[in-house]
TrEMBL record, chain A:
<dbReference type="GO" id="GO:0055085">
    <property type="term" value="P:transmembrane transport"/>
</dbReference>
<keyword id="KW-0472">Membrane</keyword>
<dbReference type="Pfam" id="PF00528">
    <property type="entry name" value="BPD_transp_1"/>
</dbReference>
<dbReference type="InterPro" id="IPR035906">
    <property type="entry name" value="MetI-like_sf"/>
</dbReference>
<feature type="transmembrane region" description="Helical">
    <location>
        <begin position="300"/>
        <end position="320"/>
    </location>
</feature>
<protein>
    <submittedName>
        <fullName>Carbohydrate ABC transporter membrane protein 1, CUT1 family</fullName>
    </submittedName>
</protein>
<dbReference type="GO" id="GO:0005886">
    <property type="term" value="C:plasma membrane"/>
</dbReference>
<feature type="transmembrane region" description="Helical">
    <location>
        <begin position="12"/>
        <end position="32"/>
    </location>
</feature>
<feature type="transmembrane region" description="Helical">
    <location>
        <begin position="197"/>
        <end position="219"/>
    </location>
</feature>
UniProtKB/TrEMBL annotation, chain B:
<comment type="similarity">
    <text>Belongs to the binding-protein-dependent transport system permease family.</text>
</comment>
<keyword id="KW-1133">Transmembrane helix</keyword>
<feature type="transmembrane region" description="Helical">
    <location>
        <begin position="266"/>
        <end position="288"/>
    </location>
</feature>
<dbReference type="InterPro" id="IPR000515">
    <property type="entry name" value="MetI-like"/>
</dbReference>
<feature type="domain" description="ABC transmembrane type-1">
    <location>
        <begin position="96"/>
        <end position="288"/>
    </location>
</feature>
<dbReference type="Pfam" id="PF00528">
    <property type="entry name" value="BPD_transp_1"/>
</dbReference>
<keyword id="KW-1003">Cell membrane</keyword>
<feature type="transmembrane region" description="Helical">
    <location>
        <begin position="208"/>
        <end position="233"/>
    </location>
</feature>
<feature type="transmembrane region" description="Helical">
    <location>
        <begin position="95"/>
        <end position="124"/>
    </location>
</feature>
Length: 327, 303
């Protein structure tokens, strides 16, 4: 049951036995809960129901989280205490500074751009005949894996040497050639952070659908009376947008921005699949993985994870406070 | 962390024009339509290009761009055959099975646990309830990365690394805080009278949970289940860390990432492989769009 299953029947059998084991555990809990009697029975049933949850979270989330903080003060193999050296490395080492800088570029660009595109598109297709189809087109990238999205965009960014008998197979380079330019090694060129910006395009492509969906719901929730009154006053389309639509969905915009910021800070799949973090494109979440698996530097990986946590915290608090205030 | 405070009711077919509709109409419709169409095309073209590529012969894919298809249409299913073929070493069928084997328990287990836990928080009075709920709520902010290194050590120590167990356990655990929070909010909405009536009839918390609560919970369970399914199916990070060692347990995303890394020039395999990997999420999306969007709205900040 706990061995490696290598054939399909073995795998399915292991899955089935895992589910049966789980069902048995649940059965025992429910059986005991149904037998509990007496004045304090509610207390006991409550604890019983939460027992598996608390055990899993304590062992799988709380302990590992604290342990990672602890390990971030140790060397590559967790043997020697080195104080804050790992954090020093993150803040002073040239390669690590590129990682930090890239992460900042990502967080500054992705949330506002994805939100703006999502908002404009949501407004443009609102109440149109093809609304749901138009929305599905933008939303679809959100449903597929970021690995698949990255492969799709690798086809757009692919580069072929500029020779008479060689054709470009990447759409972007072909367009450059059609316009009379020289093809560019798009994912390798880090001049002006070109490759990082192109990765950001992919992520915006993935996330705009999320922004659009949420903002579209918010737009539809604007009370008709307000809209009608403004219309009777004969306001221009622009002031309709800036004085009615935008203020009405302001809270939602903040929620979308912060949510995207949190997601962007943790971006990993796109960078890892498209460049592997090479050519100066790495970001914190990717560097965490590289240090952990490739560079075998557990201490630095732990410190990077903690830094990620620290960066996420203020955004989360802002997000929660904003939502709470409105709710 | 927080569920987005958004009315996720399916779009009502309200006859009254909305603010944006008016703004749009005034924005001289042709321009508005043009912008919308440009965005829609930009968003669709990359995927369309890859889809078309996946049906072109290998040599064509490697020598010319997909747009040459329109001047020289060649269609083949060879690329799809190749990703399932033993000889190419891609064997996507195996990884497809792995993805399913990972997903099913990784969806069912957290849902069952969270439903039970959420019920306790919503309808049972026990000491320390509020503190515990707050603690679990707060755990939503922990990024996955923070937990991975110690978890890996634990899984090696108890000798289950290289099996499906680390993936089942990790995905189930990571899902719990959000699942409990969402299901709790949903259960709180259920009228207390229903539960009290059942209690007066002598029903205990076990039978109330199964007979009263569960049937009402189905839409919420479905929404979260679909969200969790796609999250696990599309995951790369957890798979890389816990299943990076061997092909036996690696999901389809991992194999796709591997082909990209080691065989970045095998464009024909990448194109068809990508479409095999997105069949499941796209089908789920198209069939269960409403549930999916609802789950996504609620769970967008997970992980």
């Amino acid at each position: 049951m706990f061995e490696t299953a290598s054939t399909t029947p073995e795998k399915l059998l292991q899955m089935l036995s895992a589910l049966l084991l789980f069902a048995a555990v649940m059965g025992v809990i429910l059986f005991i809960a149904s037998r509990v009697r007496g004045k304090r029975s509610d207390n006991w049933v409550g604890y019983l129901y939460l027992l598996p949850v608390v055990v899993l979270l304590a062992v799988g989330l709380v302990y590992p989280g604290l342990r990672t903080v602890y390990e971030s003060f140790f060397d590559a193999h967790g043997e020697e205490f080195i104080g804050v050296d790992n954090y020093k490395t993150i803040l002073t080492d040239n390669d690590q500074l590129v990682v930090l800088g890239n992460t900042i570029i990502w967080v500054v660009l992705v949330p506002p751009l994805a939100t703006a595109i999502g908002l404009v598109y949501a407004i443009l297709v609102d109440k149109s005949r093809f609304e749901s189809f138009a929305k599905a087109l933008i939303f679809l990238p959100m449903a597929i894996s970021m690995v698949a999205a990255s492969v799709i965009w690798k086809f757009v960014y692919e580069y072929r040497v500029n020779q008479p008998n060689v054709n470009q197979i990447g759409l972007l380079n072909q367009i450059i050639v059609w316009l009379g330019g020289e093809p560019v090694q798009l994912l390798i060129t880090d001049t002006g952070r070109l490759n990082t910006l192109l990765l950001i395009v992919v992520f915006i492509w993935i996330q705009a659908g999320f922004a659009m969906t949420i903002l579209s719901a918010a737009i539809k929730a604007i009370p008709d009376e307000i809209v009608e009154a403004a219309r009777l006053d004969g306001v221009s389309p622009w002031s309709m947008f800036f004085k009615i639509t935008l203020p009405s969905v302001r809270t939602t915009v903040v929620v979308v921005l912060t949510t995207l910021a949190i997601g962007t800070l943790k971006v990993f799949d796109v960078v890892r699949t498209m460049t592997g973090g090479n050519f100066k494109t790495s970001v914190i979440a990717n560097e965490f993985y590289s240090q952990l698996i490739r560079a075998d530097n557990q201490g630095l990986a732990a410190a990077l994870a903690v830094v990620l946590f620290i960066l996420v915290l203020p955004i989360v608090f802002y997000n929660i406070r904003h939502v709470r205030r409105e709710a | 962390m927080t569920a987005t405070p958004v009315a996720t009711t399916p779009e009502l077919k309200a006859p009254a024009p909305s603010a944006s509709a008016i703004a749009k109409k005034r924005l001289s419709s042709p321009w508005a339509s043009l912008v919308a169409i440009v965005v829609a095309v930009l968003w669709t073209l990359p995927t369309f290009g890859l889809l078309l590529s996946s049906f072109r012969p290998e040599m064509d894919i490697k020598r010319t761009g997909w747009w040459t298809f329109f001047s020289d249409p060649q269609v083949t299913l060879d690329n799809y055959r190749a990703v399932f073929d033993e000889e190419t070493g891609v064997n996507l069928a195996d990884f497809f099975v792995n993805s399913l084997t990972i997903c099913i328990p990784a969806v069912l287990i957290p849902i069952a646990l969270a439903a039970l836990g959420a019920y306790a928080f919503a309808w049972i009075n026990f000491r320390g309830k509020n503190i515990l709920f707050l603690a679990i709520f707060a755990l939503q902010i922990v990024p996955l990365q923070v937990t991975l290194i110690p978890l890996l050590t634990i899984f090696v120590k108890i000798d289950i690394s290289g099996t499906f167990w680390p993936l089942w356990l990790a995905h189930s655990t990571f899902a719990l805080p959000l699942a409990i929070y969402l299901l709790h909010n949903f259960m709180k909405e259920i009228p207390a009278g229903l539960i009290e009536a059942a209690r007066i009839d002598g029903a205990g918390h076990v039978s109330i949970f199964f007979r009263v609560m569960l049937p009402l919970l189905i839409p919420a369970l479905a929404a979260f289940g679909i969200f969790q399914f796609l999250w696990v199916w599309n995951d790369l990070l957890v798979a890389l860390v816990f299943a990076g060692g061997g092909d036996e347990v690696a999901p389809i995303t991992l194999q796709l990432a591997n082909i990209t890394g080691t065989r970045g020039t095998a464009w024909h395999l990448l194109a068809s492989g990508t479409f095999v990997s997105i069949i499941v999420p796209v089908t789920v999306f198209l069939l269960l769009q409403r549930y999916f969007v609802r789950g996504l709205l609620a769970g967008s900040v997970k992980g």
